Amino acid sequence: MMIPIRCYTCGKVIAHLYDDFLKGLKGGVDAGELLDDFGLTRYCCRRMLITHVELIDNILIFSSPTR
Ligand SMILES: [Zn+2]
Predict the structure, then answer these.
(1) Helix (H, G, I), strand (E, B) or coil at 12
(2) What's the CA-to-centroid distance between 46 and ligand 1, angstroms?
(3) I want to staple 3 with a disulfide (CB 3.0 to 4.6 A). Which of 18, 33, 43, 50 is the partner?
(4) Integer Cα distance of 36 and 42 in angstroms
(5) Number of other CB atoms surrounding residue 18 within 10 Å
(6) Mean pLDDT, rounded, for 52-64
(7) Mean pLDDT over residues 34-41, rounded?
(8) For a pLDDT cut of 70, what percent of the chain falls above it?
(9) CA of 62 to the centre of ligand 1 (A)
(10) How many helices and strands, by DSSP H and E, does the chain display?
(11) Rounded CA Rg of the chain
(12) CA 13 to centroid of ligand 1, rounded, Å
């Protein structure tokens, strides 16, 4: 689905960082360096970006606009 707005554990706002995180990864930057640059020092917040799987485009094909 879509990236959660806040970290599930501590509540820090993290969703605004996800696009930059993906751009950095595609650019070949190490994930740990990116997270350090974003100021995400807690591992609860780091796992939110590292483990997220974007599924919204796969699920949208099952939605029906005629219902
Ligand atoms: Zn957190």
Answers:
(1) coil
(2) 7
(3) 18
(4) 10
(5) 16
(6) 87
(7) 96
(8) 97
(9) 32
(10) 4, 0
(11) 14
(12) 8
* Confidence (pLDDT) at 46: 97
- Whether residue 24 contacts residue 34, with contact meaning beta carbons closer than 8 Å, is answered with yes
Read off the pLDDT band of 59 (50, 70, 90): confident
What secondary structure letter does DSSP report for 37?
H
Tell how far the Cα of 44 is from the centroid of ligand 1, in angstroms. Answer: 4
Query: Measured in angstroms, how far is the CA atom of residue 60 from the centroid of ligand 1?
Result: 28
Which domains does the chain show, CATH number per domain?
1-67 (1.10.10.60)
Cβ atoms of 16 and 7 closer than 8 Å:
no
Q: How far is CA 56 from CA 4, 39, 66, 67, in A?
A: 12, 27, 19, 19
pLDDT tens for residues 4-19? 999 999 999 999 999 9
